[in-house]
Amino acid sequence: MTDARRTDTRAQIREVALELFAERGYDGTSLREIAERLGISKAAVYYHYKTKEEIVGALFDDFLAGVDEIVEWAHEKGPGPETRAEVLRRYQDLLTGPSAAQVARLMQEGQSSLRDVAAAKDMKTRFFAMGRAVTAPDASAAEQLRMRLAVIALHLGAFMDQESLPVSDEERRTAALEVALELART
Amino acid sequence: MTDARRTDTRAQIREVALELFAERGYDGTSLREIAERLGISKAAVYYHYKTKEEIVGALFDDFLAGVDEIVEWAHEKGPGPETRAEVLRRYQDLLTGPSAAQVARLMQEGQSSLRDVAAAKDMKTRFFAMGRAVTAPDASAAEQLRMRLAVIALHLGAFMDQESLPVSDEERRTAALEVALELART
DNA sequence: GTCTATAGCTTGATAGAC
DNA sequence: GTCTATCAAGCTATAGAC
């Protein structure tokens, strides 16, 4: 196959953009930086994506579809502790995907800089839906908060850095799931 | 007292800046917006604060001092579940201060946009210190993660919006402390 | 202490050649 | 598909009048 080296620019743009967005934030990353790191010009980037927002939108899309699957499953199963536990396990699987951890990082700390990015609003909606699907309609504030924290626990397990929690990636993920499941028990 | 209306510009700048930073992020807020909302010029803002970073630094200072007090107390007491619980109670008290919740919001989602703001690094250091002070040196990853999540729980209790958790402010704070203390128990 | 004016730079995005 | 050149708009920050 002559196209072993076939990594088209479009994909490379997404790759580099995600890396920079996760690291320096959406606002903190310019198209110039993305282009520079790829050794192409800004205009070349604009050939592949009409706007900066379209890039981040593309980044969210796969992840969004994954969350949707989980929410759908949860809806069929109905609320309860077992549903919560299984949702969290599946969500951690989703986070284990190649670039999902970086997407999670971008989401987690980007509520302000992504405030007028349409895809980010969609994401927020999905997480609401996930919360509602796994807790009873009359759930207490503490119950709802626990589920939300469980999700954050998994996020931290996925992207927290060595400095903040000096253990192996594997160990960190395991601990995150453990704590998340504790939170989902009640 | 003729100076009942004495709220000097410097303080007003801090007030408005915090409001906007918390709402739209640090990068997402320009000095023009701050000046405009105060009915003064950008140059007037620069008279009071040399740089934008100095403003956010001033915002962090009071809060930082509050955290320092807590860390110092925790250090004297030594690690353990009771220390963790009391630290969290004191931290929530700190968060109940007039503008502390907004500072917390700014910190929470600003790791990327504040990446080269010196005061933010100081803050991160303090939170590390707090974690180390309340958990044993050989604490498991899960234990460390629980303490970190407990702090986040209090943050969410302080600034989460009505839409995300539709209960009263009082109820939300109470629930947050409840969950935080659960996390600190083990 | 606040203003106007402006320097100097970066940004997101476009036009048009190759 | 990528380039150079350019745009208008926005930014932080400064100079100097009042």
What does this structure look like?
2 copies of one chain form a homodimer. The first copy, chain A, has 186 residues and is mainly α. Chain A is globular and about 55 Å long. The first copy, chain A, has helices spanning 9-24, 31-38, 42-48, 52-77, 81-96, 100-108, 118-134, 141-159, 169-185. Chain A contains 9 helices and no strands. The first copy, chain A, has 2 domains: 1-50, Homeodomain-like (Arc Repressor Mutant, subunit A); 52-184. Residues 1-5 of chain A have low confidence and may be disordered. Chain A binds a DNA duplex (18 and 18 nucleotides) through residues 9, 30-32, 40-44, 46-48, 50-52. Chains A, B: Residues 7-67 form the HTH tetR-type domain. Chains A, B: Residues 30-49 bind DNA. Chains A, B: Keywords: DNA-binding, Transcription, Transcription regulation. Chains A, B: This is Regulatory protein TetR.
N-C termini distance of chain A: 54 Å
**Bulk shape of chain A:** globular
Alpha carbon gyration radius of chain A: 18 Å
Q: Look at the helices and sheets of chain A and give the structural class.
A: mainly alpha
Major sheet description of chain A: none
Which chains have the largest interface? A-B, 36 and 36 residues
Total beta-strand segments of chain A: 0
**Taking all residues together, what is the mean pLDDT of chain A?**
95
Give the strand content of chain A: under 5%
Q: Work out the oligomeric state of the chains in this entry.
A: homodimer
- Tally of discrete structural domains of chain A: 2
Provide the low-confidence segments of chain A as ranges.
Answer: 1-5
Kindly state the percentage of residues in helix of chain A.
over 70%
Helical element count of chain A?
9
H and E order of chain A: HHHHHHHHH
